[in-house]
Amino acid sequence: MLKVAVAGGSGYVGGELLRILISHKKVKIVTVTSERFRGRPIHEVYPNLKGLIDMDFQSADPETLSKSADLIFLALPHEASMDLGVDLWDQGKHVIDLSAIFRLKNITLYEEWYGIKHRRQDAAEKSVYGLTELNRKDLKDATLVANPGCYPTVSILAVAPLIEENIIDINEINIDAKSGVSGAGRKVEQSYLFSEINEGVYAYSVGRHRHTPEIEQELSKISGKDIRVSFIPHIIPMDRGILCTIYANLVKGYSTKELLTIYGKYYRGEPFIRMCEDGRYPYTKHVIGSNYCDIGIKVDERTGRVVVIAAIDNLVKGASGQAVQNMNVMFGFEEREGLMLAGVFP
Fold first, then answer.
1. Sign of the Cα pseudo-torsion (219, 343, 181, 72, in order)
2. Could you give the CA distance from residue 203 to residue 271 in angstroms, rounded to a whole number?
3. What pLDDT digit, counting tens, does each position of 301-338 carry?
4. Among 8, 101, 102, 331, which has the minimal tally of Cβ within 10 Å of its Cβ?
5. Which residues belong to the active site?
6. Are 342 and 178 in contact (CB under 8 A)?
7. pTM of structure
């Protein structure tokens, strides 16, 4: 059994990691940390886990984590992940980090977009970007994995085939994404109160969202050319889920059916990519609670554009589920182990 620890287990992402890992047949949860709830039973913070995990939250002590676990999931704020993650990685531990601290290879770019001083360029350079479907080969030998953000996960998966097959004009990619409120984390802020968020939708961080350089970095890697995207995120009054709509100009005429065939070949054999049939499109309710990414396509022949629509659960495929999927690849487990979760509907 692989011994795993979850650092930062009291947030939404940490809670989802625990929910998934308790049913994983190849791992044993040995330590779960939370500074805020240290010493309290996990089920008091997450009543949905009562009777399923009998542990208390502990402090995130590097020595304790290193001695108890083979792999540590970090569901912590950026700076905390940098310090703890590098310490554990330096000790030879496998680390899957769910913050953004190791995602960008250019740490100057990271400091510009996040406003945080980066102290370990070597770790950022050696980390593997954990978008499983595109980096599976590198993940097999990885010891430090930078788990992707939720918006980048759905955006990159949605548009990657179009870029790799030179189907669209890479100079004009427009991404419109709408996320449930849980994407902001488990914190109390006025803008996320029920009366503030209910019955309304708004755009935020327009043109300056932190996930923009992450999306551009990975799409540029696929293309071999520098790519810039227009990325506009929105908050929508639902608990969880992301619906992402991407608009791009075709370089020549394609039909919807032709593009569906191309996507089908590109993602053939991928256990967590589901293509929608012609005329059908993703719906967030179909992926909630699951590790699936649903993708639908429509060619707008009148304008010469393609519209790609994709949906994920931001807390599962956009975070915890993908982290477990990466773990499965890293340690040679069956990739679907612990993740065969049907979406919760309605």
1. negative
2. 32
3. 999 999 999 999 999 999 999 999 999 999 999 999 99
4. 331
5. 150
6. no
7. 0.95
